Amino acid sequence: MLRHMALTCFTICCANTALAGVISMVGAEFAASGRFYSVNERDATLTELGRTNSFLISLDYSPSVILYSVGTSIQEVDPATGLTSNRRPLTFTGGPSSDLMSGITFSTSGELYGVGNNTGNIWKIDVGTAVAEFVGTSSATMFALEFGPNGVL
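Predicted structure:
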């Protein structure tokens, strides 16, 4: 099961990396070249792994356990170091010409969704093409989103 949550000025995400229930949880300081941490799921203690080479706004693991960060670009993040690769700017279609993703979440089928920072805009993001397709707006102030246990966004 994939889960993440965002805390003020800090993003934490985790992935169930094996059927046995092993959890890998990482977090990034909300700053350019911020600190990158592993997070102990039992007591929330942090172990610094290094500094990022990018501003990591939102994080989530794909079902194939690739860690992604999305803001106005999509990039892969090495969960051992926090360093990013394969950075590509998002192309926005079907709605506003741009948005800043403050929260992302993967469905169990691998579809990535994002919410615009303080806009309520919901986007479906293709990780292969970096195209963000406008789904609609909630007309509410939102900073995060998540799929529920029943698979509903």
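Summary: Residues 1-11, 17-21 have pLDDT under 50 and may be disordered.
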